[in-house]
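Supplementary Note 3. Input sequence used for the single-chain structure prediction.
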Amino acid sequence: MRRLVLALAATVALLCACGERADSRLRTVEYGGRTYEVDQENQTISFDGVVCAYSTDGGGKVTFTAPNGAIAYWQQSGGIGHGGWSEDWQEAAGPGELMNALKSASGSAGWAGERSGNPLLGLMLLAVGAFNALVPKAAWYLSHGWRYKDAEPSEAALAVGRISGGAAMLLGIILFFV
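The predicted structure, written as discrete structure tokens, is reproduced below.
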């Protein structure tokens, strides 16, 4: 029991210790035959000598501002997105291209301000996993033991319950924080 708690604590500590290097906020990506330079710290995206600022609202909308003050936006909702721009937008790249370059620069399907995990599912997996890992005999009785009269779980069944509980807890932590 103590080893399991120590192993879980070590796993959480290792996950929390991960961080980005200071120079990892500046990325150069190729998209659609064009080279983009994304500066995530200053929230700018550069292409063909043009530097546009971008901002997110946290709800899936990204607004791009060109040097002449023209505005373009991209709104993402799940797997569907749409965009538009003001009449004075003269840049060669549209908001969809800029958004895809931002996603490529982030190194994942998500981008700053967009969550890909499910915190509620993460909490549920964490709770069920903790129950299975910490009290595997009670978990066995709830899932199998009630079916049989005077039955006891084997050591293998308890070990599998602990291991699957630990795996569920790890998956729950990942889903909660991603």
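The chain has two domains: 22-106, 117-177. Residues 22-106 form one domain.
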